[in-house]
Design brief:
Blueprint: E1 4-12, E2 17-26, E3 31-35, H1 42-49, E4 57-62, E5 65-66, H2 72-82, E6 83-86, H3 98-108, H4 113-126, H5 142-154, E7 160-164, H6 172-189, E8 192-196, H7 200-203, E9 208-213, E10 216-220
Helix pairs in contact: 3-4, 3-5, 4-5, 5-6
Bound molecules: adenosine-5'-diphosphate (2 copies).
GO molecular function: ATP binding; ATP hydrolysis activity; transmembrane transporter activity
Domain ABC transporter: 4-222
Pfam family, one: ABC_tran
Length: 224
């Protein structure tokens, strides 16, 4: 049974719909790649699945709850407790150290500084970037910064990780390493991953692929 399931989503920002009946489901521990050309609706689909954006119609069910019928405050709380996010770039707070960035979601959840930073340090170790703990994000390489971002997305133990072009700003070697570390950590913690990418090499880390085109989605059988 799906952990998170979107059905028949429609969303328009203008005359042409961004989503025109798209859907997607993901099970616990499963990595699903969302592929498709630029402008096809991938990010809009991800934002609807994550409860960041309300679709015009259609349903998004997470466990036994329907996201669109939740009050905003409850949906925000659910995002904080159950979801993790990795974006292409610009997601770390520049004024904080990398360690403080990873500890931040725990601090926002009311965990005291020492405990939060100790758990954050463990995640920096798992992502093999303890060396940047005391640096600010601007002082790291792109690959290091994305590993810190992955640590921050996973530190709260989310059930679903949303990754929108997480390797888009990286060279292929660093991109592959980030994907290895992200998917290994997700599998260990049984987190589902919804991975938006236009790179086949990145999608190869998924269990399943869904292609979005003109706001419609379809499953593809990968040749592997
Ligand atoms: P993708 O992620 O596949 O590149 P998007 O979901 O970002 O596609 O965009 C799908 C379509 O919706 C595009 O035509 C895009 O311009 C439009 N769109 C997305 N977000 C917005 C927004 N906030 N306001 C207006 N148009 C948007
Ligand atoms: P694209 O896939 O087109 O590059 P981006 O990843 O840059 O899209 O994000 C585009 C949209 O996602 C923007 O409308 C932005 O408001 C929203 N967004 C990005 N990060 C967050 C976040 N952490 N929380 C909520 N919305 C976000």
């Amino acid at each position: 049974r799906a952990l998170l399931e979107a059905t028949n989503l429609r969303k328009s920002f203008g005359p042409t719909p961004a989503l025109d009946g798209a859907g997607l489901s993901v099970r616990a521990g499963e990595v699903v790649a969302v592929m498709g050309p630029s402008g096809s609706g991938k990010s809009t689909l991800l934002h609807c699945l994550a409860g960041i954006l309300q679709p015009d119609s259609g349903t998004v069910r997470y466990r036994d709850a329907e996201l669109s019928s939740m009050p905003d405050a409850q949906r925000s709380e659910l995002r904080r407790t159950d979801f993790g996010f990795v974006f292409q770039f610009g997601q770390l707070v520049p004024e904080l150290s990398c360690l403080e960035n990873v500890a931040l979601p725990l601090r926002l959840g009311g965990i005291k500084r020492r405990a939060a930073e100790s758990r954050a340090r463990e995640w920096l170790e798992r992502l093999e970037v303890t060396g940047v703990a005391d640096k600010r994000p601007g002082e790291t390489s792109g690959g290091q910064g994305q590993r810190v971002a992955v640590a921050r997305a996973l530190v709260t133990g989310p059930s679903v990780v949303f990754a929108d072009e997480p390797t888009g700003a990286l060279d292929s070697l660093n991109g592959e390493r980030v994907m290895q570390l992200l998917t290994a950590a997700a599998r260990e913690t049984n987190a589902a991953v919804v991975l938006v990418t236009h790179e086949a090499r990145v999608a190869a880390y998924s269990d399943r692929e869904v292609v979005v085109r003109d706001g419609k989605s379809r499953e593809v059988e990968p040749a592997r």
